[in-house]
Write a structure and sequence with these properties.
This protein is α/β, with parallel strands linked by helices and 173 residues long. The chain is built from five helices and six strands; from the N terminus they run ββααββαβαβα. α4 (130-145) links the parallel β5 (115-118) and β6 (152-157). α4 (130-145) crosses α5. The radius of gyration is 15 Å and the shape is globular. The structure holds ligand AR6. Ligand AR6 is lined by residues 9-11, 21-23, 29-33, 35, 83, 119-126, 156, 158, 162.
């Protein structure tokens, strides 16, 4: 199992898949979601719009994952997942965040993805404290990757400060 921390713009990674920290509508937004849609081009929005709604305005419930092509991005697929909004930590946030990583890897495996990168899901607009998110993410990935031993997973941090937090969590896991 390969799990590593990288400092990069996620949209530049030429991997089998990159993961988007989306919202339930899957119609774009700010943060890494906005960056992915800008770099992928308008076809990504059309592909997302074509995904079925499971409830009004919801194409992907929190903790679930959906897959689309990556269009103009150097990656092959975009796996869209929806992290929890941080509400203080007693509203099931950790379990929902763990579920994002599990469902993304399970979906990736169905598409024969071998190399994949995750952003720090929920750690921006959604307000999840980075140290806690990193611990949850790494524990969840370690667990699910026992079933997918050949998969190489990068934890993609946008800046060095975030990368140091994630590297520390990885070292301690
Ligand atoms: N590459 C890698 N990481 C990035 C990039 C990038 N290009 N851009 C931002 N980050 P966020 P969330 C980091 O807010 O908290 C959107 O509007 C960022 O520094 O993108 O899950 C969606 O539509 C942070 O560490 O995602 C949702 O409405 C991390 O990515 C909502 O935000 C996640 O920050 C989701 O919020």
């Amino acid at each position: 199992m390969a799990l590593s921390v990288v400092t990069s713009d996620l949209t530049r990674l030429a991997l089998d898949a990159i993961v988007n920290a989306a919202n339930p509508a899957l119609l774009g937004g700010g943060g890494v979601d906005g960056a992915i849609h800008r770099a992928a081009g308008p076809a990504l929005l059309e592909a997302c719009r074509a995904l079925p709604q499971v409830a009004p305005g919801v194409r992907c419930p929190t903790g679930d994952a959906r897959i689309t092509p990556a269009f103009l991005l150097p990656a092959r697929h975009v796996i869209h997942t929806v992290g929890p909004v941080w509400k203080g930590g007693h509203h099931g946030e950790a379990e929902l965040l763990a579920q994002c990583y599990r469902s993304s890897i399970a979906l990736a495996a169905r598409y024969a993805v071998r190399t994949i990168a995750f952003p720090a899901i929920s750690c921006g607009v959604y307000g999840y404290p980075a140290e806690q998110a990193a611990r949850v993410a790494i524990a969840s990935l370690r667990d699910v990757l026992t079933l997918h031993a050949a998969m190489e997973v990068q934890l993609c941090c946008f800046d060095e400060r975030m990368a140091a937090i994630w590297q520390e969590a990885l070292n301690q896991a």
